[in-house]
Specification:
single chain, about 120 residues, alpha+beta, OB fold (Dihydrolipoamide Acetyltransferase, E2P), 8 strands, globular
Length: about 120
């Protein structure tokens, strides 16, 4: 009887640990995902987290990157304006494309699928 009670308690603890504190509202650090930013009212100041991809003078914040070379945006994406790429660390380059392997946080104002960056945030 004691062993089955301990086993049940362990299963409950494992299940609770898997739930975490994520309430589904954005990234764990409080930033909006690209998908959430696209649903946000224009003119709002936000912090958005996503993978950066720059190609042909156009910069995008992507919800994910394809595992191709060079990578491409997959899924929802925001056009980014006002970002100084030279000020960012950790960008990869190849095939005429510049990208971030890990999500970056950008501060800015939203408007019609565009994130106007006001400052680069530490990633």
């Amino acid at each position: 009887m004691r062993i089955s009670t301990v086993a049940v308690l362990l299963l409950v603890l494992v299940a609770l640990a898997g739930c975490g504190a994520d309430d589904g509202e954005g990234e764990p650090d409080g930033a909006l995902s690209v998908e959430q930013a696209l649903d946000t009212q224009a003119g709002e100041r936000v912090v958005v987290s996503g993978n950066l991809l720059a190609q042909g003078g156009e910069v995008r914040l992507c919800s994910a990157l394809a595992e191709s070379f060079p990578p491409q945006c997959v899924g929802p994406q925001l056009l980014v304006e006002g970002l100084e790429l030279d000020s960012l660390d950790g960008l990869e380059t190849g095939g005429g494309v510049m990208w971030s392997d890990r999500p970056m946080r950008l501060h800015g104002t939203l408007g019609d699928g565009v994130l106007m960056v006001s400052q680069n945030a530490p990633s």
